[in-house]
Structure formats: C-alpha cells, structure tokens
Amino acid sequence: MLSGRRHLPGPVRVAVVGVGVLGACVGWNLARHGADVVLVDAGQPGEGVTNWSFSWVNASNKTRLRSYFDLNVAGMAAYRELAEAVGPDSWWHPTGHLRWAGDPATEARFRDTAELLADWGYRVEVRTGAEVRRDLEPALAVPDSASVLFYPDEAWVHGRQLVGRLVERAVESGAEGRFGTAVRDIGIGGDGGVRTVTLADGSRLDVDAVVNAAGPGASRVAGLVARQLPMRREPGVVARIGCAEVPVHRAMHAPHVEIRPDGDGSVVLHSREIDALIDTGVETAELARLLHESARRVVPDLGECRITQARVAERPIPADGFPSVGAVPSVPGYYEAVSHSGITLGPVLGRLLASEILTGRRDELLADFRPERFGP
Questions:
Q1: Parallel, antiparallel, or unpaired: how do β-strands 251-254 and 155-157 relate?
Q2: How far apart are CA 93 and CA 263, in angstroms?
Q3: φ and ψ at 284, to 5 degrees?
Q4: pLDDT in tens, 53-78
C-alpha cells in the first residue's frame, strides 16, 4: 500500500461532495495517497442516509447480476482490510446474518438463492430454528423446525462511527473538512473541465476534480455540471429502539421485519412492507410503532424496549438500481460515487475510485457500473 505524500500523475486537489460512507471512503483513500482533499457536506459527516441505513454488509442479496455480486463480495473483503487499517473498534461487527421465511413459497425462493450462492462459492449454512436458538440467538421466537439460513461471513457496521473514524484519518493525512454548507455551483473551465466549487457560505474552492458522493442529492450536484443522473425515488423508514439489554447479536431478516443491534443499548428496525406505507400518509411515528410491533413478535424481549428515533430517508439509487461510479468523460475532473448498498460497497468503491482519480486506470470490477451508461 502507498503511504505518505507523493507526486500525483492525476488531479492534485479534489473536493468530495457528500461525506456519508461512500464519500468518507473515497476521501480517506485519496488523502492517504497524497491528494489534497476537501470534504464537503451540507450537514455533518455520517449523519445523513448512512446513519439511517440497515448497514448490513453482504452479497447474499445481490444476485440479480453476477458482476454486481462479485463487486459486493469484493466489498466484504475490503471491509476486513479496512478494519485492519483503521482499527475495528465499535463500528465493525462481523457476526454473520440470519434469514428465514414465514411461508413455504418464500422459503423455497430463499433456498434456491442459497443454492445459487453456494454454487458461486459463497458460504451459507442451513440451520433449524432450534439450532439457531441454541447456538446463536436464544431470544428468537422462531419455530424449532423452521429452516434458517446463516451467512457466517456477513456483518453489520455502525455507519456513523465508521465515517467519523475515516474523516479523522483523512484529516490526519491533510484533508480539510467543510461541513454545514452545501455546494452551490461547480465552475467549468474553457476546456470543459472542473475548475472551482462554490459553497453556500460564499467561499470558493479551486480544485482539479469533484467527486459527487451526495447520496440522495447526487442528481442535483450532477446538474451543476449540466449532467442528468436519473435516480429512483425509494424512501425507507428506519426506527431505533432503546433497550436496557440488547437481546440480539447479529443482523437478521425475519418474516415481515429486519432487525439488528446498533451498539449503545440500541436496536435498528426496518421493513420493506412498512416502507410501502410511507406514501399513504401514515405518520413516521406510526410507521415506527408498526416496526416495533413486528419486531416484538420475532424477539419478544424487544417489547420491553422503547422507540427512541425514527426517520424516513431517501435511498440513493440510480435509475437501474446499480451504482454509478467513475469518471464522466464529457466533464473532465467530474466523478460519481452514487450507490444503494453504499455500506457494503463503500470500502471497495473508495479504493477503486481513488485509484482511478489518481492514476487514470479503470478497474474491470466497475465495468458494468460506469456513469456513461446514463449518457453524458
């Protein structure tokens, strides 16, 4: 690995717009390899979508396209390297993941996926509900005979803590943070390339490159360089509940609800079924109550916990559902790092994009996920 400051064949000063997990991973990789980095966020690092993600590191849910699965497997490996590089502390939890169904048809679909994953060399174990309660999660109300899939190589991360650690390390390597102020304009030079970034506080940054890692705001930032980046609208609701003692030890997908520990006496809840109610006018507090109700059926001890936070957040998903990562050839110096599954992909995308910015080399792992598929 490279370390310290060195002569760069690529851009020297880079503004990273958006300091969630993707922006933080890109910024840290750039800074540690010698770039002059400015981290820009309208809010505070890690407080946006990253803080309201289920934060599950996996490839088992990424089988629609083999190259996307491979990219997520690389993301999982990159996490293990990242934990060694910056220290695991309390943000990294490689405790595996559980999934089980509530009806025969869904169970058959889960089994088919598990068989495909096993064929692709991905580790999966089939346990009974009784075995899971005995060996992994004693508090679960799962039937003894239920078929439960256990993915031992999966993990969850505390996104906000991870971003804080990466920003800290980037600053130690010379990066500058400009937080609490949004990007108002991106200036283009006579050659069509990026030259300046103007912030809402009136300050202007002279830069050689901009990384658009603005999550749900990525389409607006792309518009500042006259680019159209089509995004899905796919809101999700996440609730946190506070517990005197957290009764679960790993991320899990149970029938109707997703549950994982969150550290500090907290548990995170999410459900695609509850997400479907967002646009019906149901208040966020009621959505959180429904999540809690579903969760306590799976883990009765969660009935003793109380809802502490809930939020509806927009997921940053390009129109076709896959990442948009890399240079946009029509605007020299403009790069995108926009993706759902930013938690899983952050470390690998951060490394690959930083390398592309600094050397110009395009990695084959990103071949199917280049921004130019959406046009100039």
A1: unpaired
A2: 10
A3: -55, -40
A4: 999 999 999 999 999 999 999 999 99
